[in-house]
Amino acid sequence: MSQPISKAKLPTGPFREGDRVQLTGPKGRLNTITLRAGEKFGTHRGDLLHDDIIGKPEGSVILNQTGIEYLAFRPLLSDFVLSMPRGAAIIYPKDSAQIIVMGDIFPGARVVEAGVGSGGLSMYLLRAIGDMGTLDSFERREEFAEIAKANVATNLGIVPSSWNIHLGDLQQQLPIKKQAGSVDRIVLDMLAPWECVEECANALVPGGLIIGYVATVTQLSRFAEALKESGHFNEPEAFESMTRGWHLQGLAVRPEHRMIGHTGFLITARRMAPGSTAPNFKTKNKPEFSDEDLSAWNPDHLGERKVSDKKLRKTIRSAEAAAEARLEQ
Question: Residue 36: what are its φ and ψ, rounded to 5°?
Fold first, then answer.
């Protein structure tokens, strides 16, 4: 049943039955389990009893039957997003953080997102808008919407009343579901965001912000030009973020050998007042594109990861089982 986001089951206090727990074992290996009275977490190094964790505070060190130590914490949202069942590729936490900040998502904001994917970004947006805001998520595929809803329920312990999922193309559904000038922020995680610029401009309030998340340079260029040509937005800005961890051991402090590099581009623009024209602060001539360039912008040429129906059915079952267990707490 839908409830205000403030009624979400807070990840604090002693461990309870039904909680998800992240166990850090030998060599820093991570395992996430759901606590069930009488059950055990089995490894080749011995069993760890769930009853030995239930009632303990976070940050406790738990011994298994052979004396192996495990550090127990509730997973952070970033941990959950990277390990949850997924049908579509996720937006990485580093990019979700940039969307929240550069998209200026504030408490009480009226936000639209498309598509919903596996619900990772939805959870960050729901936290940011709070009880007074609304999040309308548009998703073309019903299977992805089911997975996202289950993942949100698993993480929060509720389905927030501030969240609405709409099935169908944003172009057709946005004018039906949202009145003109009634949306503060629009986040687009879709293959061809340039196809819905007019609908987004109509839905946004003057000063509202549109932010796109795209994977390739061709998508970035096409979307940027569509925003400019529409005449509804100011000059768009684009950027990407990269995350590099550091090895910390005594005086051996150095960058890690691996890093999270390019995952996607973010592009933002502000809605102009109706009837206003953005000043042309740049003196460069408008770029021209050949038919060959335009064909490279066609969604059919950009590529999209296909997910088999069998994998989707399995993912839905896994996500719904986790959600059911969480909601029963």
Answer: -135, 125
pTM: 0.84
What's the rounded Cα separation, in Å, for the pair 122 and 118?
Answer: 9
15 in Cβ contact with 53 (< 8 Å): yes
Q: How many CB atoms lie within 10 A of CB 213?
A: 23
3-state class (DSSP) for residue 118: coil
With tokens 């999209």, the residue in question is: 304
What pLDDT does residue 296 have? 57
CA distance 185 to 179: 14
Cite the DSSP H helix spans in 181-241.
197-203, 217-230
CA distance 52 to 202: 56
pLDDT in tens, 33-86: 999 999 999 988 899 999 999 999 999 999 999 999 999 999 999 998 988 888
Q: Rounded to an integer, what distance in angstroms lies between the CA atom of residue 102 and that of residue 266?
A: 9
Task: Give the span between the Cα atoms of 304 and 301, in whole angstroms.
Answer: 9
The pair of structure tokens assigned to 244 is 């590099």
Distance CA 136, CA 159 (A): 13
Question: Phi first, then psi: what are they for 51, rounded to 5°?
Answer: -65, -25
- For the segment 189-207, what is each residue's pLDDT rounded down to a tens digit? 999 999 999 999 999 999 9
pLDDT at residue 276, as a whole number = 87
Orientation angle between helical segments 93-102 and 120-129, nearest 10 degrees: 30
Give the residue from 199, 235, 197, 220 showing the smallest Cα distance to 297.
Answer: 220
Stretches where the chain sits below pLDDT 70 are: 1, 281-306, 328-329
